[in-house]
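Recap quiz, item 2
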Amino acid sequence: MTLPEGWELVVGMEVHTELLTKSKLFCGCENHFGSEPNTNICPICLGLPGSLPVLNKDAVELAMRIGMALNCTIAPSTFHRKNYFYPDQSKDYQISQYDLPINSNGYLNLPDGSQVTIERAHMEEDTGKSTHLGGSGRLAGADRSLVDYNRCGVPLVEIVSGPDIRSSEQARAYASELRGILIATGASDGRLEEGSMRFDANVSVRKTGDPLGTRCEIKNLNSLRSLQRAIDYEAARQVELILDGGTVRQETRHWDEGLGETSTLRVKEDAEDYRYFREPDLTELVPDQPWQDRVRAALPPMPAARRAKLLERIPSATKAQEDAVVVVIDLDLEHFVNAAADGGAEISIAVSRAANELAAGIDTLSNLTTDAFTQTVLMESKGELSATQSKVVLGELLANGGDPKKIAAEKGFEQMSSDSLGATIDELIAKNPDEWQRYKDGDDKLSQFFVGQAMKVTQGKANGKAVIAELQLRK
Amino acid sequence: MKTAVEIANDVQTGATTAVAQLDAAYVAIEARNAELNVFLHLDKEGARKIAQAIDARVAAGENIGPLAGVPIAIKDNLCQTGIPTTCSSKILEGWKPPYNATVIDRLVAAGAVPVGKTNLDEFAMGSSTENSAFGPTRNPLDPSRVPGGSSGGSAAAVAGDMTSISLGSDTGGSIRQPAAFCGIVGMKPTYGLVSRYGLIAFASSLDQIGPFSKTVMDSAVLLEAIAGHDPLDSTSLPEPSPSLVSHVNDGVAGKRIGLVKELYEGADESVINAVMGAVAALKEAGAQIVELSIPELRLGLSAYYLIAPAEASSNLARFDGVRFGLRVDAEDVTAMMEATRTAGFGAEVKRRIMLGTYALSAGYYDAYYGQALKVRTLTINAFQKAYAQVDMLIGATTPGVAFKFGAKSDPMEMYLNDVFTIPTNLAGDPAVSVSFGKGEENLPIGVQLLGPGRSEASLYAAARVLEIADGRS
Amino acid sequence: MSPSLSRDDVAKVAKLARLRLTEEELTTFTGQLSGVLEHANDMNSLDLSALQPTSNPFGLTNVTREDVIWKSLDRDAVLAEAPDAQDGRFAVPRILGEAP
């Protein structure tokens, strides 16, 4: 969406990601989504009197991986207590990094070439979860709430971007790229629907060239789609408010996915006084060079590097192919593409089939072997299968597995001989003299007309390239 | 009353049994507990099981450990599985922890038998045990006087011959001051020497668990049993328990001991006389005495009464009526938390929570809490400078002897009673109070020996010299 | 510097600390807390800008534990100690606002 002429959108993102450790940040309770309520609790995460936290080393290393993948400086850091009373916070304070975060001053390059700065990526603990009884089952109007502390103490990294994002599309691309990185580092499973990754967006608008406007923080963004919608809604709301002579109030707003609206959650004047101070029960974290080197050495390649590597195999890739490569890397499909290309198939076909057919069938991808994919794409590359037939074969392989050659035979996708194709083309030329004349006169677009007609009469058995070759023979 | 060392020896050799010692302890406790209010809870059944198991192991020829069959009293801010743990607060009344403090496990592993939980100033905030929600503890030496605090119950258990040893905790003097008032030995170990896991926190960066005993040797035996690295406490020192018992009789020949003006000036005359007597005894035993002034120590009180409440205000937030302990019902959760905390905490606890909340709040942090943390650095530097010249320091533990109930009704006046003990907590260093000489009405006086981190062995050796010089062999 | 403490300050702090004070307590606490803060003036008159703050006496670093799962507590035993519980969860009266 676009703002009125002369207006600019400014977005900074705060992304919380749960870390994929076995145990919680400060105790040995299992870090697991979906357990029976209050079964992963102990004196520490339950905040029982006398208990003390001890930092999970793997959580530190995953946080360092995130920092490295986001080009951050990794520095000595400390933990603080953020004090506020709330029933899902078992100690009534949250242990979080404050003025000295483990990761700071990084950046993230997006596939479109833009860059977003990363101010910091710090560690903190998650809270428990409340269920509300009475009323509508939501917080407002409930009579009573029930608290489950299984999530309390689960390790989080909060990644804070600079106010560098200028459109909701870019915000979405940032969130998506970040998700890819978090999955690649092994830090997160990236499951938005389970709350493993949660987005907050700081949104403001300004006349182009003006200083930054007052921002509102949008919470409860649980998907890439709601992120983009909420930013669009909020930007429009702020511009309209200003144009009507009002001023934007600094506040926290809640996104309602059903209503497609944001609404005030808290105004800044109500801001709590968190009384931050150094957590006396934890020691300073000073990752020395050998430790950092060890973590860095174990870091797998990031999506951007994997994309670049795959694109190296596709000389002068089109925009559509670049986009397809983004999808292939996002979905971790490049081993299919590489195997097919190594097996002699055309890589552009392999990329296209992976980004479309495999992406659509990702849930049953385990039915498909790289070998079966290679064979199918190879047949298509050689003209033994048309694009349509190739897609059908892949669909069958994804659904039930099997041997591509047998599937093609069963479906009657035997190769069309050039003799019978030639006869078909002759018939089509005879039936469509005007189109043939225009094609002969140099209107190349009409080749697609003949390919389409050929597909129709052969019921998809014709190979598009072979049709064009036959047409050129007769030109 | 036998010492812990003697009891352990008798139990191990079969001269007595752990059960007999336990029975004797309960007889002694019941004889005076109604009058003195030392114990809040007795775990007779659990203790008997532990004692019987020890006796069975002795019969089977096993070596039990340095505290074989020794009954021990536990300050009621240490968690023990299934045993009511209250911190002498209504907010925790009836709460039974589902886990043991590390020190409890270590005591039991060393053969000790925990007999019950002792009274304290609520959440260890106080210097007289008058702040207990369950009534004050009386000093066994003069029941019209306080036993000191906050570990008043544990000190009284030993002074009243109920148990030979007990555990307390010391945040600003809460072991040493009651030890002085009750005429016994109290050690505040180096911060991190004893695991704090299971100690209900007052001020996390200052709290340390430590021993009470009649003799220096018992103190060393007990500390050695509970000290050493614990992976459950991030601030626990990395090394295993130090060798202490073997150094108790090392003496002080050739040691340089600093007599610190700021650690006795302003005290009662009898107290100053006792400190000078102790200095003479140490000199007699071959130590070299150096008179020192460390003016920075005077700032300790101010820093302490901001840092400790600040940490406490956060540590005590979890007492909110949601997961355990008291709840006072109300319309909504915020009102419930307020009603619970208002009804559950006593006046001194509220005062310190308020003070700490204020010191940390926006706009005041730098002036109060931030400045106090710098004074802490100043104190540490001043001690380090002193320890570059001498091996240890000597001074008084308290400005006077045990006072009468209600004598210090103004909070600031009460806080000033901690002026000599607080600086070591700020530095994290060890200090021991040993009874030396007598003051008004023949009440005991405590002399304090202070050393750099991990110097417990030297402090015990010097304390042992004073113990002998004071007529206790 | 010595900002003096007012009754309003004390009332604000009590709210932050989730404590309810009577008018009488408010008066008493204002006086007593002011006394402690006044005593702290001995410290506040010093220029300590050259010193680093000390939060913990011994500067241990990098104390961590291995990422190993341990046995959690028995839920029923824990909930038996809770003031109120329902459906395997801790029950509380209605919550007025979202978490900060």
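Strands of chain C lie at 64-65, 85-86, 89-93.
Chain C has a mean pLDDT of 92.
End of item.
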